[in-house]
User: What shape does this take?
Amino acid sequence: MKKRVLIISAAVITVSITAFSVMSFNNLKSNETTQLENNTVAMNTEVINKMANRIFTDFIYDVGPRYNPIKKTDLDAVRSFNDLIDLEHAQRIVDYKSISVIKIIDDKESNIRETGNSDALTNKQLEFIQASNYSTNLTFSAYLTEKNPETGTIENTHWRPYFTVIPEKQAEYSEGKEALKKYLKENSKASRDKANVDPEKLQAAKLFFTVTKKGAIENVRLDRTSNYPLVDKTMIELIKNTPGTWKPAENFEGKEVDQELVVSFGLMGC
Assistant: This one.
């Protein structure tokens, strides 16, 4: 009888220990899951907050030419594709298949182009680039073979550098570039708050405007929306009504000329 009681007692103890163990494991697992979920939410919130702070701190990314600036006098002196790239990259090139000089219109490659099949630009290509006025946007689309600097193998490559033709002396804002960026960022904040801008939905946008030879602001336009019409409208009004003055650009003769500039805002983009 005592033996039976001992066996039953042992069984009860075993069941109790097992039940306690299962409960403890489940509680531990539940706590770990809850903790993991809380950590995940905290991490996501932190990432979103950091993203929002970065975006709104750097809301205005740049003010200047659309692409890599190249002075009109420097462009007129170009005779080959190699004149446009650094020596290190030029030394990697083995052979050229074709090079096209293409005019960019409204941020898109147009059908206005001239094509050659060597590093040396053709007469038509030279005439093409030398006829480019200030603020013209160009790309040189080069299909070539080059030696991979790491493996030494010959590879087919497509290079496409972009340039904006600029005057020898660019237009300048009286208070300076950084002051202009600060003005645009701070005075657009109210519209961003009112529009409840979501950092994940904000898009890269570019605001084009021309500083005329008389120092006036004209031809203000957006290339695309930032996804928030109120912010777009505010940016247009701000650039139109910028305080201070603009000093016009000058050509190589020192004569005042028009220059188109671009405000890049929203998310960092092309």
Remarks:
- Residues 1-30, 39-43, 47-55 have pLDDT under 50 and may be disordered.
- The first helix runs from residue 2 to 57.
